[in-house]
Amino acid sequence: MKNKILKKTLAAVTGSLLILTLLAGCQSASPEDSSGSLGQKQSENQAGGEEPITLTLWHQWTTEEDGNKIAFDQVLAGFAEANPGIRLEVTGQSSSDYSTKLKVTFAANEAPDIVYIQAPGDLAPFAEAGKLLDLSGMIAADKTADKVLPGTLDNFTIKDGIYGLPTITSLGLLYCNTELFQQCGLALPETWEDLLDCIRTFNQKEITPIMCAGKDLWPAMDYYDILAIRQAGAVRCREALSGNASFEEEPFTEAARKLVQLVEAGAFNENDLSLGWDEGIAKFSAGGAAMLYNGTWTTAVVTGEDSAIRDKVAVINFPSLADGDGDPDEFFGGAFEGFCINANCKNPEAAWQAVNYLCEQMSNVSVMTGNGLPAWNSGGVDTQTLSPFIAQQYTLATTASGYCLWWDTALGGEAADFHKELVMKLIQGKITPEEFSGQMQKINTGLDSE
Q1: Residues 353, 138: contact at Cβ < 8 Å?
Q2: CA distance 156 to 139
Q3: How distant is the alpha carbon of residue 428 from its chain centre?
Q4: Minimal CA–CA distance to 71: which of 135, 125, 116, 138?
Q5: Among 61, 136, 399, 438, which residue's beta carbon has the most beta carbons within 10 A?
Q6: Quick one: 241 exposed, middle or buried, by C-beta within 10 A (0-12, 13-18, 19+)?
Q7: Are 267 and 250 in contact (CB under 8 A)?
Q8: Strand-strand pairing, 330-341 and 114-118
Q9: SS3 track for the chain
Q10: Which of 63, 159, 158, 65 has the alpha carbon at shortest distance from 117?
Q11: C-beta of residue 212 within 8 angstroms of C-beta of residue 232
Q12: How far is it, in rounded angstroms, from Cα 51 to Cα 78?
C-alpha cells in the first residue's frame, strides 16, 4: 500500500471555511440521494425509533498527522447526519501489518464489512478469491462511473468486476524548500543535470540536498521508481510490473545506475536512512533538507501550522532525463486508495451507501486539506477557492501525459517487499545496478528461482 501510504496535518490550507461549507452541504444531503429506496427505508426506521444498521470498517490511518486521517475524520463528522440509518464502528489498524491482518481475517471469514484497501496489488487477491463484493451492478444502477474521473476505477477493476471505489488521486512530486534554494542562488531543477548541480551546491553549503527516510523502505523506493519511469517510460514500467517486460532491460538498469549516482553525489544524508517516514517529513518540515520526493499526502504536513517551511515550499514534477525514454510529463502515482465491501457483508446495500458517501467526500475534502487530488468529478474543482500551493498541484495533475502506479502497490505482497528491500540494498551499496536488475526480474520469473 502504499503502506504509506502514509500523511498529514490539517492546516494545510487556508480554506478551512470552505471545508466547513462543503461538509455542511454534505450533511444536508438526504440518504435517498445516495441509495434510493434504502435511504428512504432507513429514514422511516429512524422516525419509528428503530436502531440503525451497524457496519464495521477498518482503515490504516493511526497517526494524527496522517493526511488521510485528517480528511477521513472530517468526513466522518458529517456521515452520521447525512446517513442516519447507518452507524459505523471504525477501527484504525497499524499500517505496518495491515495487509497481514486483512489476510488473516478474510481467511477466517471474520473481516469487517468495509475495508480500506490499495489497488490493485492488495485488492486483486481478495477479489479473485471471492472475498470482496463486485460493485458493478450498484455502480451501474447509481451511474457512479459518471461521477468519478476517467481512469480512476481502473485499478479497482479485476477481470469483469469492480471491487472498490477510489478516494483520491495521488501524485509523486518533488517538494522544494524555496528559502534554501534562494539562499544558494539556485533555480528549481528541471533536468537531471540541474538536479546534480543543486546537489553539489547544497553539499558545499552543508545542507542536506534530498531527504530520504529509509526505515520504512517505501520512501526510499520512490527514488528508484521515478527514475525508472523517466528512463524507461510509464508504459514500459507498467509492462514490467505486470510481467510483460523484463526488469533486466537496459533502461531499468540505467535507472539503478542513476540512483547510485545520486548516492555517490551526496544527495542523501546517511543518517536519514534510519528515519521513519514521520520522522523524515518532520525533519524536512523543520528545514532539514532542500528537497523531498514523495506523494501529495505530504502537503498536509509541510504546509501545516507547525511546519517551519509552510510558506517556503514549492512542488514540481521530477526532473527530466535527456537520455530517457519517458515523457517528462508522466507522473508516479494514480488513484489506488479506496474502500471495498466484504462479500459476506449482511447489509450490502447499506455498505454501498456508506462506501459511496465516504469515497466521494474523501475526494472533496482531501483536495482542500492537501491530502491528495480528486478522484471524483463532484462538479469540478474551482482552483480559485484553493490555496495557491494546492492549486499548483492540481494544475500539474492536469498536465499529466501518463501515470505509473506506485510500484509496491502494483506488485503487492511479497513482491512489493522484495522490491523495496532491493532498492535499499542498492542505496547502501550492497548490490550493483546489474545485480539489482537481475534480482528484480525474479519478480516475474519466480522469487524462489535461482
Answers
A1: no
A2: 12
A3: 26
A4: 116
A5: 61
A6: buried
A7: no
A8: antiparallel
A9: CCCCCCCCCCCCCCCHHHHHHHHHHHHHCCCHHHHCHHHHHHHHHHHCCCCCEEEEEEECCCCCCCHHHHHHHHHHHHHHHHCCCEEEEEEECCHHHHHHHHHHHHHCCCCCCEEEEECCCCHHHHHHCCCECCCHHHHHHHCHHHCECCCCCHHHEECCEECCEEEEEEEEEEEEEHHHHHHCCCCCCCEHHHHHHHHHHHHHCCCCCEECCCCCCHHHHHHHHHHHHHHHCHHHHHHHHCCCCCCCCHHHHHHHHHHHHHHHCCCECHHHHHCCHHHHHHHHHCCCCCEEEEEHHHHHHHCCCCCCCCCCEEEECCCECCCCCCCCCEEEEEEEEEEEEECCCCCHHHHHHHHHHHHHHHHHHHHHHCCCEECECCCCCCHHHCCHHHHHHHHHHHCCCEEECCHHHHHCHHHHHHHHHHHHHHHCCCCCHHHHHHHHCHHHHCCCCC
A10: 158
A11: no
A12: 19
The span from the CA of 75 to the CA of 73, in Å, is 5
Does residue 380 contact residue 90 with C-beta atoms inside 8 Å? Answer: no
Q: What is the pLDDT of residues 49-77, one digit of tens each?
A: 578 999 999 999 998 878 889 999 999 99
* C-alpha cell, 230: 523517466
Angle 447-258-272 (CA atoms, 0-180°, nearest 5)? Answer: 80
* Strand-strand pairing, 291-295 and 402-404: unpaired
Cα distance between residue 296 and residue 57, in whole Å: 25
| Residue at grid coordinates 486521517 | 69
151: left (phi over 0), alpha (psi -120 to 50) or beta: left
pLDDT for position 36:
34
Packing angle, helices 388-398 and 348-369, rounded to 10: 110
From the centroid of its chain, how far is CA 440?
Answer: 23
* pLDDT attached to residue 11: 32
Query: What one-letter code names the amino acid at 181?
Result: F
Is the pLDDT assigned to residue 43 strictly greater than 50? no
**C-beta neighbour count of 172 within 10 angstroms:** 23
Tell me what the mean pLDDT of segment 419-434 comes to: 98
